[in-house]
Structures are given as structure tokens and as C-alpha cells.
From TrEMBL:
It comes from Blastopirellula marina. Gene3D superfamilies: 2-enoyl-CoA Hydratase, Chain A, domain 1 (3.90.226.10), 6.20.330.10. Residues 133-289 form the Peptidase S49 domain. This is Signal peptide peptidase SppA. The chain crosses the membrane at residues 22-47. The lineage of its organism: Bacteria, Pseudomonadati, Planctomycetota, Planctomycetia, Pirellulales.
Length: 349
């Protein structure tokens, strides 16, 4: 009799993966942790790189007038407030216009009493360069004030006819140069205070407030002012070609005197009495575009902490006091240029 064959039970082998699982989890955790730290670093480097090459620093375009759907644009570049350095807000606007091929014309909106010689000249240079590089028309619209360095900047129109518009209440002119100087030697003597500075040469202290200026030093500084003044008048002749033919007329006007809009018009300092809308129409005509079918844009910079009331008071910071006390020549309609803050250049800087 054949006995049935019973299958022998197979031993059950239990594999313990617990040790491998822990290692895997540790490796995964390290990987995620590394990713957690690397992503912000990579993003930071990307932002830093973008910021390094970005000259506009958050300045953004804003619709101003015309057609909201048009691709062709007229750009309004604002030069507002006291001109200090020149390479701030105004330069950022210029850079945006230069890069935007949809911009077919530019209106420079000037509302400034002027500022430093260097800052005013810097802005003028870059406006003329923009006009040349992009081969687009440029006109000027004056706001409440376009005096001294503000008028200097307006000469970016060069020899374009009918290109400078002043509003009925605009104040302009003040063609001239000033180096501020104050003499407090008498006050110091009253309080028994003496200037005991050590210097390499007496001329190092030509503009010190603590001593009366010598005639020798005054003559040196006067020659400096004269050269800056000559350049100012040469620039005016470029923007107002009629004065090239009649320089004596410019000499009569270039005394630092300010003018009303009507006086400026009568003397050939501006071309028309009109608002920014008339300036836009004129530049559209020069660009051969329809202003109603064109998008007019302006540029805004983000609110700074100082504007939001979140920054510390910078008015009396040591570096600002040094900046204000440094000797500078000004194309400016004011007797106190060194005590005006460059915040926020109006915003022109």
C-alpha cells in the first residue's frame, strides 16, 4: 500500500529591512534638508545677479494717457526736485526708455529749481544720448519751476523747433552759477573760537566758513564760476539757436533773474505757453503718430522706507552733513543750496 506523500512545510524566512529603512530615511532627510538650504541660496544668487545688472531698480511703468491697448508709446520722463547726483531716478527712467523699443517719443517733464553743476550736466548728457541712440523726438514740458539747472536740462531739445512748453504759472530762467559761502568768523571770535586747522596749502581752505576769504582766493573761485557759467550759456545756445546769432541778448538774460512764463516766451527762452497735453501732442506730431492711438506712460519708483515713515531720520546723519558742507558749484535758484537735502532729489537725484 502506497503511503501518501506529505509535503514538508517550507520554513518561513522573515527578512528584516528595518536597518536599511532607517538609513534611507536619514539619507532622504539629509537630501530634503540640503534642498531646503540650497534653494534660498540659489534664489538669492539669482536675485543678486539680476540686481547687479538691473539699472532700473524697481522703477515701473504706469499708464498716463491715450490708448490703454496701443503698442506704440510716448514716455514721460520726470525731472523733479533738487538735482544732486543725476544718476538716480532720472537715469533709471532713461534706461527703461532706452530698452523699450515701443517708445516712439519722449516728453521730459521738468519741475526743478536746479542743483549741482555736475548732476545737471549728467542728466542733460544722458537725455541727449537717449535721443541720439533711439533716434526719437524729445520735447520739454515745464511744471511749476524749471530754473537754473532745471532750465539747463531742458536744453536736451537741442535745435528742435517748437519744443519747450511752459505752463501759464511756470517760473523759469535763473541762468547762472553760485558757489555758496558763509563767513562765521565774527561769531567765532565772539565766542573765543579759533580755526587751528593744519593744511598742505592755504588754498585748501579757500571756502572755509571760519575765516574771511582773501581776494586771491576769491579771484580763483570767480574764475571757476566764470568757466561753469560760460558752459551754461553755450548749452543754452544749443537749445535756443537764436542766441547763437545774438549772444548779447543772452548776456542780458543770463543774470540769474527768474522769469514768468510770458516773459520767458517774449525773450525766446520757451516756445509756447501750454500744459503737458500740448507737449504730448507736439512730440506725437514730430514722431508722426496719433496721440489718441498711442499709450502715454510715466515711471514710478517704489516707495522707500523713508517715505513710509519706517526709516530712521537721516537729515542729520554725519555723511549728509559732510556732503552738504563740501564745496560745490550750483546751477540753482536758491541762496541755500548746501542745506537742502538730496532726499529724494525731489526724486531726480
Amino acid at each position: 500500500m502506497v503511503q501518501p506523500i506529505h509535503n514538508q512545510p517550507q520554513p518561513i524566512i522573515i527578512q528584516n529591512h528595518h536597518h536599511g529603512s532607517i538609513l534611507w530615511r536619514i539619507a532622504a532627510a539629509i537630501g530634503w534638508l540640503g534642498l531646503f538650504f540650497c534653494v534660498p541660496i540659489i534664489l538669492g544668487l539669482m536675485i543678486s545677479s539680476a540686481s547687479y545688472y538691473n539699472t532700473t531698480e524697481g522703477v515701473s511703468e504706469k499708464f498716463f494717457a491715450g490708448s490703454k491697448t496701443a503698442s506704440d508709446k510716448i514716455a514721460v520722463i520726470n525731472v523733479t526736485g533738487v538735482i544732486m547726483e543725476g544718476h538716480g531716478y532720472v537715469r533709471k527712467q532713461i534706461d527703461l526708455v532706452r530698452e523699450d523699443k515701443d517708445v516712439k517719443a519722449v516728453v521730459v517733464r521738468v519741475d526743478s529749481p536746479g542743483g549741482t553743476v555736475t548732476g545737471s550736466d549728467y542728466i542733460l548728457h544722458h537725455l541727449k544720448k537717449l535721443k541720439e541712440e533711439r533716434d526719437i523726438p524729445l520735447v520739454v514740458s515745464m511744471g511749476a519751476m524749471a530754473t537754473s539747472g532745471g532750465y539747463y536740462v531742458a536744453m536736451a531739445v537741442e535745435d528742435e523747433e517748437n519744443s519747450i512748453f511752459a505752463e501759464p504759472t511756470t517760473t523759469t530762467g535763473s541762468i547762472g552759477v553760485i558757489i555758496p559761502h558763509y563767513n562765521v568768523a565774527g561769531l567765532m571770535k565772539e565766542y573765543n573760537i579759533e580755526d587751528d586747522s593744519i593744511m598742505s596749502h592755504p588754498r585748501k581752505q579757500m571756502l572755509t566758513m571760519t575765516r574771511e576769504m582773501s581776494e586771491e582766493h576769491r579771484e580763483i573761485l570767480q574764475e571757476y564760476v566764470n568757466q561753469a557759467f560760460t558752459r551754461f550759456k553755450d548749452i543754452v545756445k544749443e537749445g535756443r539757436p537764436a542766441f547763437e546769432k545774438d549772444p548779447e541778448k543772452l548776456d542780458v538774460l543770463a543774470t540769474g533773474e527768474i522769469f514768468t512764463a510770458n516773459q520767458a516766451l517774449d525773450n525766446g527762452l520757451v516756445d509756447q505757453i501750454g500744459f503737458i497735453e500740448e507737449a504730448i501732442d507736439r512730440v506725437a506730431e514730430l514722431a508722426d503718430i496719433d496721440p489718441k492711438k498711442t499709450r502715454v506712460v510715466t515711471y514710478e519708483q517704489p516707495a522707500a522706507l523713508f517715505d513710509l515713515g519706517l526709516a530712521q531720520n537721516q537729515a542729520l546723519s554725519y555723511d549728509k552733513l559732510l556732503e552738504m558742507s563740501a564745496p560745490k558749484a550750483y546751477y540753482m535758484s536758491s541762496y541755500l543750496p548746501p542745506v537742502v537735502s538730496s532726499f529724494p532729489f525731489g526724486r531726480s537725484k
